[in-house]
From TrEMBL:
Catalyzes the phosphorylation of riboflavin to FMN followed by the adenylation of FMN to FAD. One of its GO terms (molecular function) is riboflavin kinase activity. Belongs to the ribF family. It comes from Lutibacter maritimus. Its EC number is 2.7.1.26, 2.7.7.2. Pathway: Cofactor biosynthesis; FMN biosynthesis; FMN from riboflavin (ATP route): step 1/1; Cofactor biosynthesis; FAD biosynthesis; FAD from FMN: step 1/1. It catalyses: FMN + ATP + H(+) = FAD + diphosphate; riboflavin + ATP = FMN + ADP + H(+). The keyword Repeat does not apply. It holds the Pfam family FAD_syn. The lineage of its organism: Bacteria, Pseudomonadati, Bacteroidota, Flavobacteriia, Flavobacteriales. This is Riboflavin biosynthesis protein.
Amino acid sequence: MNIFKNISTYKSTKKSFVTIGTFDGVHLGHQKVIKDLVESAKKNNAKSVLLTFFPHPRMVLQKKTNIKLINTIDERIKLLENIGLDTLIIHEFSDEFANLTALEFVKTILVDKLNIAKLVIGYDHHFGKNREGNFDTLQQYGTEFNFELKEISQQDISNITVSSTKIRTAIELGEITKVNSYLGYNFMLTGTVVKGKNLGEKIGFPTANIHIQETYKLIPKTGAYIVKAIIANKTVFGMMNIGYRPTVSGKNQTIEINFFDFKTNLYNKIIQVEVLQFLRDEIKFNSIDDLKDQLKKDQQKSLEIIRGTFFESN
Ligand SMILES: Cc1cc2nc3c(=O)[nH]c(=O)nc-3n(C[C@H](O)[C@H](O)[C@H](O)COP(=O)(O)O)c2cc1C
Ligand SMILES: Nc1ncnc2c1ncn2[C@@H]1O[C@H](COP(=O)(O)OP(=O)(O)O)[C@@H](O)[C@H]1O
């Protein structure tokens, strides 16, 4: 997959089959649309092109918004790469871009840059300044500039019953099993391992504390979870805590993972964990010993669940 981070350096001579959108989550519904596009482009000897935007339009248009996303931009790129697209264009969604009229957008980007032959969009897609462009406008432009338009119907979309909004809500509620079934892959967190208070090792449960650079990444609700990671080409399971560590009077939110049967220095390494299942809420224990006893129970429970549910599917 060719990735272009700036549309001004892009120009296609080959005709393109294009889809446009944010695709946050790259969930089962998105995957279906993109796979259809890739297949039909192949059959017609055209390029499959996905045009996406970063930052998220809502981050630009509603400056005060605190929108959180299912994927960081790097996670989104990786997920899209796995589907088999020919070209991914990540266009900066700036104020200037938001001010293009629907006609300017179609003419200067879809026609002149992408050499568009077919456009696939969802039934409720709006675009251009003040969201003035819709399916009807696009149909007129399709006739004028000679491209085919395919609309994914409301029926098709609701049949999938998946939406980025539903997934975001489920993440906030810690409903990870539901999240993963909607995504069609396991929800992930990616970050750098940083130093903590060094208490973990002392109590027999060293934890890799991960720092996520992207402040717009949506973090699941506070609590303990079962996770999996690939470290040095090996699958390792573990238990993660997202929370404030009330037992040791922690102040900031931390995300920390104790990997099972594992003993490697991870400081400064970038790791990605797949979140598999919610275990329990965070508790304020009366003593470190009580916390330690609970961690032993969590480990036992996690290992049983991993053996029963997740081990085969590695
Ligand atoms: C799976 C797991 C669950 C945890 N649950 C709690 C909890 O319920 N309450 C709490 O105060 N701390 C909890 N902790 C956090 C510990 O307090 C933390 O690992 C310890 O303070 C070590 O911190 P450090 O990494 O700064 O050394 C949990 C940690 C893990 C790995
Ligand atoms: N099984 C393990 N799980 C997680 N981290 C481990 C493990 N074994 C060794 N480590 C290393 O130990 C560090 C965690 O030790 P810990 O005492 O909890 O320190 P900190 O408070 O800095 O996180 C991790 O960042 C990692 O480098």
